């Protein structure tokens, strides 16, 4: 998409074939993962690529699938009561899959409820530092 939010206009007579579309979306991903693998190796660690499906939907505490829209930023499991930031929940799931760890609760008890105001305030930047 262009800056105006519209799809780019192709020259007259030019068609975009499906193989070209595949190249546009697959090739950058291949280079991205190759670069991540290279950086991990140069840092003396491993890069493990995992399947990202359901990493934000699965409860990292009990393993239940909790469906939610992308606009919901807090994971709140109705089955075990676990409450966490959606990204934190997904990170724990990704780490567990990548490290092939057995499934066990992350926290001994559910976290306190996070209000919408608290989540929105987390997105604000800190005020600029001013030397005295």
What does this 3D model show about the protein?
There is one protein chain. The chain has 3 helices and 2 strands. The protein is mainly alpha-helical. The protein folds into 2 domains: 33 residues; 71 residues, no CATH class. Strand 1 and strand 2 form a beta hairpin. The longest helix is centred in the first third of the chain and has 25 residues.
Write the layout of secondary structure elements.
Elements: H1 18-42, E1 74-76, E2 83-85, H2 86-99, H3 116-122
The helix-and-strand class reads mainly alpha
- Largest sheet composition: 2 strands, antiparallel
Q: Enumerate how many helices there are, as a single number.
A: 3
Report, as a whole number of angstroms, the end-to-end distance.
Answer: 46 Å
Radius of gyration (Å): 21 Å
Number of strands: 2
> How many domains make up the coordinates?
2
SSE run: HEEHH
